[in-house]
Specification:
Length: about 400
């Protein structure tokens, strides 16, 4: 073992692995430095649990001469026989080190060992990566060296895992904060909050297309169905819209019961109003079809659903609003208020998609003039447009 090279690696990790910060290549750097120090690695894996509603964890896999492979696993893995029969299950659930020499008959209890033997691997060790908060993550290290790892080489791996845990924890916490903000307030809002835009009243104005929708008959639905069923229906209903909105550049800012508020920013310097509004209309068409196809069996009956969405374009105030230390990153302004009023008009007219005169004027074609309507809180009546292919 080259103790000097090993110490350089440990110092590099303690210093934050600055040369590869923000890059998954930190794992290949660790592997290459360990090989240079005298640890003959064949394959290295790091498995980190995440705080995410859909993703159980991320895995990073490296082999000499290869790029780092990154993958994610969902919560179904917890019920998988492959996981429960894996050395990593012992690491995750008990926080214990697990070694499996390929020539040791007792290692046969792990199905993965047969696959490793076929690759020519002679030794495998899984080491826990312990975070300060008590959570347990895992790493695995394999070699093709005849006879497996020596005790000196195993000691080197153990010495590297401790500073590696601190580095991964810091990176993981930063990523978790970003993911949670993305999940709960939206991507653009999350970036602004992480960037320091956290003071109450810290706002900016922007031009945007506004989407405001709700589920028809939601109050009656809530009254006659169990709360758990209503939540499941709402989740499926929002799924019909969110993907259509996000893949066209929109950001969901808020869920209000059965209501959904989203914005599609418009770059006034580029002049992309028409393109943005066209994408918004595409999302409305897709959502309309998805909600129409949504069916929910309840007993012998099958529930079907309708929704309404109002589309408007205008200037909004976007930022931190709230009381004390409880803030909400949202948008306000007359344009948002008008969109909310238009959505109510859509409900009264039994229309699915309606648009303001401003939105319909930008995204021309396919609209019918539904007339002017008084709007609560506004001095002037608003002209409302509906899709030609819709009938009340």
């Amino acid at each position: 073992m080259d103790s000097l090279e090993l110490q350089k690696l440990i110092d590099w990790l303690i210093d934050g692995a600055r040369s590869v910060v923000g890059s998954p290549q930190w794992l290949s750097e660790i592997g290459e430095r360990l090989i240079a120090a005298g640890v003959p690695l064949w394959r290295t894996g790091v498995f980190v649990r995440t705080l995410h509603p859909e993703i159980f964890g991320r895995n990073f896999i490296w082999k000499p001469g290869s790029e780092v492979e990154i993958g994610t696993v969902d919560f179904k893995i917890l019920d998988s026989p492959d996981f429960h029969n894996s050395p990593l299950a012992i690491v995750f659930l008990q926080g214990l080190e697990v070694r499996a020499r390929v020539d040791d008959p007792q290692s046969g209890r792990f199905p993965i060992i047969a696959d490793l033997r076929a690759e020519g691997v002679t030794d495998y060790i899984a080491l826990p990566i312990l975070f300060i908060d008590g959570s347990i993550h895992a790493s695995s290290w394999t070699t093709k060296q005849p006879g497996g790892f020596t005790e000196v080489q195993l000691a080197a791996l153990r010495s590297v895992v401790k500073p590696l845990a601190r580095l991964i924890e810091i990176v993981s916490l930063t990523r978790t904060a970003s993911l949670l903000l993305d999940t709960y307030v939206g991507n653009r809002a999350g970036e602004r909050i992480l960037g320091g835009q956290i003071r109450r009243g810290h706002t900016e104005t922007m031009n945007a297309a506004i989407w405001l929708s709700d589920l028809r008959g939601f109050t009656a639905l809530s009254d006659r169905l169990p709360a758990e069923t209503v939540v499941d229906i709402l989740n499926q209903y929002f799924d019909c819209q969110v993907d259509a909105i996000r893949k066209r550049g929109g950001e969901v800012l808020k869920y209000m019961g059965d209501g959904l508020l989203a914005v599609f920013p418009i770059d006034e310097y580029v002049g992309d109003e028409q393109q943005v509004c066209s994408r918004v209309l595409e999302a409305a068409h897709e959502s309309r079809a998805s909600v129409a196809d949504m069916k929910y069996p309840i007993g012998d009956a099958v529930e079907q659903f309708r929704f309404g969405v109002a589309l408007h374009v205008g200037r909004i105030l976007y930022g931190n609003i709230g009381g004390g230390n409880r803030l909400d990153f949202t948008c306000i302004g007359p344009a948002v208020n008008l969109a909310a009023r238009l959505e109510k008009i859509a409900s009264n007219l039994r229309r699915t998609v309606v648009a303001s005169e401003g939105f319909a004027g930008i995204c021309r074609g396919g609209w019918s003039d539904l007339g002017e309507f008084p709007v609560a809180g506004f001095a002037k009546a608003a002209r409302v447009y509906g899709l030609i292919d819709e009938t009340p």
